[in-house]
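Students often ask why we bother encoding 3D structure as a string. The short answer is that it lets us treat folding as translation between two languages. Here is a chain of 751 residues written in the first language.
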Amino acid sequence: EYCRYNRVGVGIGLWCLLSVMLSWAGLGSAGSCAHGTLGASAAPVSARAAPARSHSSSSFKRNHNLQHHHQQHNSFGSSFFVGRCTPPQQRQRQHLTTETPSRRDSSSSTYSGNTATSSSSSSSSRRCLCSSFFHAAAADVGSITTTTSSSSSDSDFDADDHVLTTRSYSSAPSTSTNNNNTVVAPRRARRQRRIGRRRFSAIISRATQTTPIHPTDEPVDYTSLGNTATRQLQVQPQKTTSTTAKSKTTKVKTSKNGNGHGSTKNKFLQNKTKQRSVPFFVMLPLDAVTNDNKLANPHALQAGARALKASGVHGVTVDLWWGIVERDEPRKYNFSAYLALAKLMEAEGLELSVALSFHTCGCNVGDSCSIPLPRWVEEACEKDPDLMYTDENGHRSGEYLSLGADLVPALGGRTPVECYADLANAFRRAFRKYLGRVITEVSVGLGPAGELRYPSYPEPLWTFPGVGAFQCYDTYMVANLRAAAYTVGKPEWRHGGPHDGGGYNARPEETGFFDETYGRYDTDYGRFFTAWYAQALVAHADRVVKAVRSSFAPEDGVTLSIKVPGVHWWAGTRARAAETTAGLHASGRPVNDGIYEDIISMCQRTGTRFIFTCLEMSDDEQPCHAGCAPEALLRRVTRAAWTRNVSIGAENALPRYDPIAHERMVARMYGECLGATEPPEGWRLSNFTFLRMSEAMFRTENWKRFSSFVRQAAEPPKAEALKSADDLADEIGADSGSLKQQEELAESAYA
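And here it is in the second language, the structure alphabet:
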């Protein structure tokens, strides 16, 4: 691009210089004759340049200019050449002897009363328009950049060339006609020369520009984005080079209110978090969008968004339900409610993190509504029940399609993985204008509750702290297990999972498989089965993430993420029964080189963010008889993430409004209180999502503590002990007005 622009600029410059030398050497007439009839028609063209008319009416002048617009484009090059490239004495005689035409014939391209000019002359003038234009403009190249002391200049926008040029107004008086009806200084010739200078300036500017300019509809200040990966993917502001000075960076002025078109102060970018602060998100209610694909309560969502924005929250998270957007027919997507939500959050200055939820709602702890799978998927499951996870007793789980059927074309000729990828592709097309600006993260649902696990502890079949049940008894999972058993040379292991794994609510010592002393989990069969069971889950995650990632482009500026649950009960035992039935543990694997490490390595390969739950939990708060170890689990996944340089975010498993949990979460956001193995200096979570926005959040006492929690999370904790959220809120005196405003907004949202 640089070479092409420079060649054009040098060529034009040399041609103009040669034209100037030829014109002033007295070869202007010969040059004009060589181009056709320009020399012969010099007098008529000059005569046509100044038709007689009254100058008292400005409206008549505008109408006249509009009426003769086409004539000007046909003849401005010819008159420009004659007026500038003939010797000065001859040019003066032409101006003094040309008669002013009395009228213009509307059916002809020339004025009546002038010397007759044939249509062939006009066409020949048009043919040599470009050559005569450069001859004429070259003579006036000095007037483009310089003005005399008696002239003033201002900026003028030429609609034909879309460039900003300088228009000069001479202070010398000019007369159009005299008593003998002869032209002294034709207005039209001056106007044509002015137009020619502007166009010449535009051509020179375009030809000599070393860096192509790609204008955008809305310049964005990417440096204020919190996501480093997103910021690196965005196009940086272009630099332009002047024709007479060294290159300078183009600066775009920002509007004061941030609402104007083309402003760099977009509302959603006004979250001025500090350099090391953790972006704080809040999860919206599960039923923010109803089954009828409508916003449940737009006024409440708006009031809640305003309160969250005032408290310093970075954005919100919402579930995009497969059963809502593709409910009735395959490939018939309806994102209307979610588009309205994205528009609302953009207006309130909040970012939006979207979770592609390919599961149902209503089968997990905290589910407050019921959202099924798409109808046509349910019909396919009725025809082929093995598309659903199945336990040892034959109970089918309709919460999420079995990973054994990932590559089975049972959904109208498509596989489940293809359906997931098609939905992601449709989402990208529908939300293209929000990607990278409002929507910066897309979470991929990989199982029940959108988490990477088997549905081993569904409600109401399971109660805490049961070990759960294996979900590998559908036809497709059994076929996969059979192939793995034959591969290792053990065909007797092909029939299914352990027969003594217990039930959903059993304790480890009550089972033959998970017993600490005599359990079969540590036998050859136990190690084989648990490894196959867990690796099938990791392979499922890899397939789906790659399929969804293929729907997005790097320039979209969107980070993909997956969510892994914190199955912390029985994590303090050797068998780790609950994690094993969920597919997150394999017997015989080292503690620091297990399935969590395999999942994080998969995230490293695919460039995916790892989201982990139970950030707020403490070992002391759990019942001692359940073998809970949430702190050790958090230390393990955090260490695996930072050693592999994988971005990691976190959520709280249950809503907490007590200052103790808030202090603990803030410390863990920045890598503190994680045990003996501390993270590198400056390490922090990529983001944090609070579960979730509800009526309880906006109650007066809860809101005070929550807003203090947000302020605490905005800064790294000090070396000394953290102050409580209540004490921190009391110490902030300068923001008392802001706190009062936040409380008023919270009361409005609560109402």
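Translate back mentally: DSSP finds 24 helices and 14 strands in the chain. Keep this in mind for the problem set.
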